[in-house]
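testing teh design pipeline on a random one, pls ignore if ur not involved
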């Protein structure tokens, strides 16, 4: 069964709180790009150490591989 991305966006990603969280993650990525620690297409993620996407202080941000960051986050969920 194929995913219905339009319906996912309408039901989840378009909610105001999710838009705000996405904007905070994008802001963190831009901060790390300005420092020269990541670049577009490098397969790196900007990780928030305390898992709070609203906390973009430099001491809370770190660069990790996409695989490491996303596996770390899935382990926390359950």
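output:
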């Amino acid at each position: 069964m194929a995913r219905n991305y339009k319906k996912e966006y309408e039901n989840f990603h378009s909610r105001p709180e999710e838009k705000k969280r996405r904007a905070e993650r994008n802001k963190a990525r831009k901060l790390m790009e300005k420092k020269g620690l990541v670049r577009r297409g490098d397969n790196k993620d900007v990780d928030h150490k305390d898992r709070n996407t609203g906390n973009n202080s430099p001491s809370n941000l770190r660069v990790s591989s996409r695989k490491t960051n996303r596996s770390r986050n899935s382990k926390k969920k359950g």
